[in-house]
Automatic annotation (TrEMBL):
Keyword Cell inner membrane among UniProt keywords: no
Protein name: Aspartate aminotransferase family protein
UniProt-recorded Gene Ontology molecular function terms: transaminase activity
Keyword Transferase part of the UniProt annotation: yes
CDD domains: OAT_like
Organism: Sporosarcina soli
């Protein structure tokens, strides 16, 4: 990284322009126009990213769980440059095609679990899930079951920001934002309640996926969508047996199983796909983020053989698509991303780093009494902060435990993410780029250690 920091007047200017013209997503606008941007990023290398003042930060969450190869990957820049120079864009509508999109589709299908057989391209995760919902309903209508329209998702899930995917999202603030809601979207209780595993003694048993299917009638359900490991909702790992149980339930009721692998796809969890941990074969897999490591905007919907076969038998037009479906430059970056993941054994690295991270978590848990429920699957990890972990007692809301610890980390130049959407939950997410090494991961743990000490002092 070149150390060229901007002058104070330039920083001031950008900050004023930002406050005036740029409406930021998932940000409190009133606070933003008072305080201005927290940080203006300018460049990065490896796991580190710099701001325009020249300060260097470790990116402990790969920005939005997407910059999996870290920063400064020249090969990705070259792949984009070459494709931009040759053919920056071409459409995939009306039978038009391009080589990077064709080659990437073949590559994705070769990596995807089970009988995956074709890819529909999008520009990101929300579009992928939105597409999955439409294709699931379309599939059933082609099968003569057009009543099957309901999409079931579970609490604490995050599936996107469009009307339908926002409705599927089981996090209050996103789900209810602006009063927009999609039709035929139902939330069920999730795996934190154990209900799918048949634990009828669980007080939250009512309302699990099985009950929703029974209540609404299987003839009305199109699909169930799940993240194998919930990300934004607080890094909740599916308990063993859960995904298999849901898949079985889906098969018994002619319901499609959609795996939202927007975060967990392409190596993040120490396997190529999150579902590989439980050997479940979804009917549809939605991906985005890690497919290009954030170097370009791309998503994909991977379809099972059965879905593809049904969709290609009809004379009807597939009346769905985006201008940027199969974008050649994005696909060229995707191909190079996967090449690097495979060549540099990054899936394996994520699996190896899980061990280091878990050791670090044990150390943190031993030293800091408020650290609870640590978990890591590959490099998708997190921990809870609790007032009394032995008795499962949460911190008072006003303490803002997760936010405070994340702030303390930020002061020490480590970027992490707080998940405190749910009342009484204070979760800190850790998901560094897959290129991270042991020494760097230990540095991350060291900073969290210091931040926790400072947080504990503030409690008095
Ligand atoms: N699904 C999951 C699991 C996600 O984490 C996200 C984004 N955080 C999305 C879908 C939506 O992706 P995008 O923001 O690219 O539309």
């Amino acid at each position: 990284m070149v150390n060229v920091s901007a002058s104070t007047s330039k920083i001031q200017e950008l900050s004023e322009l930002d406050k005036k013209y740029f409406l930021h997503p998932t940000t409190v606008p009133k606070a933003f126009i008072e305080e201005g941007p927290k940080i203006i990023f300018s460049e990065g290398n490896g796991i580190r990213v710099k701001d325009i003042k020249g300060d260097s930060y470790i990116d402990g969450v790969s920005m939005l769980w997407n910059v999996n190869l870290g920063y400064g990957q020249k090969e990705l820049a070259d792949a984009a440059h070459q494709q931009l120079s040759k053919l920056p864009y071409s459409s995939s509508f009306y039978g038009y095609s391009n080589e990077p999109a064709i080659r990437l589709a073949e590559k994705i299908v070769s990596l995807a679990p089970g009988k995956s057989s074709a890819v529909f391209y999008t520009s990101g995760g929300s579009e992928s899930n939105e597409t999955a919902f439409k294709l699931a309903r379309y599939y059933w209508s082609l099968k003569g079951k057009s009543e099957k329209k309901i999409i079931i998702s579970i609490k604490r899930s995050y599936h996107g920001a469009t009307i339908a995917t926002g409705s599927a999202t089981g996090i209050e603030g996103f789900h209810n934002f602006s009063g927009s809601s999609g039709n035929d979207m139902i939330h069920a209780k999730g795996h934190l309640t154990n209900c799918e595993l048949g634990d009828k003694t669980d007080p939250e048993y009512e309302g699990c996926i099985r009950d929703v299917i029974e209540k609404e009638g299987a003839h009305r359900i199109a699909a169930v969508i799940l993240e194998p490991i919930q990300g934004a909702g607080g890094v909740h790992v599916s308990p063993d047996g859960y995904l298999q149980a849901v898949k079985k339930l889906c098969e018994e009721n002619e319901v499609l199983f959609i795996a939202d692998e927007v975060i967990s796809g392409f190596g993040r969890t120490g396997k190529m796909f999150g579902v590989n941990h439980w050997e479940v074969e979804p009917d549809i897999i939605c991906v985005a983020k890690g497919i290009t490591s954030g170097y370009s905007q791309l998503g994909a919907v991977i379809l099972s053989e059965e879905l593809r076969e049904t969709l290609v038998q009809t004379e009807q037009i597939l009346g769905h698509g985006f201008t940027y479906s199969g974008h050649p430059t994005a696909c060229a970056v995707g191909l190079k991303t996967i090449e690097i993941i495979e060549r540099d054994n990054l899936v394996e690295n994520a699996a190896n780093m899980e061990k280091i991270l878990k050791e670090g978590f044990v150390y943190l848990q031993d030293k800091h009494p408020h650290v609870a429920k640590t978990r890591a699957v590959g490099l998708l990890a997190g921990f809870d902060l609790q007032a009394d972990r032995d008795n499962d007692v949460p911190f008072e809301q006003s303490i803002r435990a997760a936010k405070t610890v994340v702030e303390e980390c930020f002061k020490r130049k480590l970027i992490l993410r707080a998940a405190d959407f749910e009342v009484g939950k204070n979760i800190v997410a850790v998901a560094p780029p897959l290129v991270i090494n042991k020494q760097e991961l230990e540095e991350v743990i060291g900073i969290i250690d210091d931040a926790l000490t400072s947080f504990e002092k503030s409690l008095g």
